[in-house]
Amino acid sequence: MEKLPKFGIPIIIILIIAIIVIAKSAVTIDSGEAGVLYKTFDNGVVTDEPPLGEGFHLIAPWNKVFVYEVRQQELFEKMKVLSSNGLEIQIDASAWYQPVYGDLGNLHQSLGKDYLQRVIQPAIRSAARSVVGRYTPEQLYSSKRDAIQDEIFEETKTILSKQFVQLNEVLVRDVTLPNTIKEAIERKLRQEQESLEYEFRLVTASKEAEKVRIEAQGKADANKILSASLTDKILQDKGIDATLKLAESPNAKVVVVGSGESGLPLILGNN
């Protein structure tokens, strides 16, 4: 077996050390992620520089990189809260959030990787309790769902405004009431709907009756005016006009014998 040259062993040692150093120094940041650099011998977490972006990076082997997901993420929460009258309501909500990219170093330094459990969950639960406590179960079940969604979002956003976390949206997926309360509300809503339908029918019938009354009054007024305007002379003239038109008709033969009480000719027959 041939012996290695005297300089061979040191070269191998140097190569091994180089490989270890490169392995410790090489950092790859995947898509949708960013890295926070920690300098062991220089004030620790770097907060005054942008985080390390996607791709390959070389750092000093004694430093560290903490990788964070910076894409939008979702938190799903089932929360039991009390309404304004003390009834327990279950709210199913989702929060869309992501760390503030430029403040990733501050986020790591102040909260760490478990920032979701440290600030986001407590914030949305606190906001949900505060908002739902202002409404009755009936309002939550029917007309106020969109309102509480917006209010929970605004209150949670206010709480998180100084926590280096960006809240994008809060969605209230479901509001679950106790069965007895839900049934009572549904009965009340049905009764209100039936009452509205009945009132509509009454209004419609009243309008129809008013229309008939107005039409009848109009006819009565017209007949009254007409009766007041007709005299014996006018009636006699109209009778003469009608007789002449009938006499001029080629399809009729008129025989005039005497006259009636009104002085009009009497028509005895025609073909």
Automatic annotation (TrEMBL):
Subcellular location: Membrane
Keywords in alphabetical order: Membrane, Transmembrane, Transmembrane helix
CDD domains hit by this protein: SPFH_prohibitin
Superkingdom, taxonomy of origin: Bacteria
Transmembrane segments: 7-27
InterPro entries assigned to the protein according to its UniProt record, in alphabetical order: Band_7 (IPR001107), Band_7/SPFH_dom_sf (IPR036013), Prohibitin (IPR000163)
Entry GO CC: membrane
Band domain: residues covered: 24-189
Protein name: Prohibitin family protein
Protein species of origin: Rasiella rasia
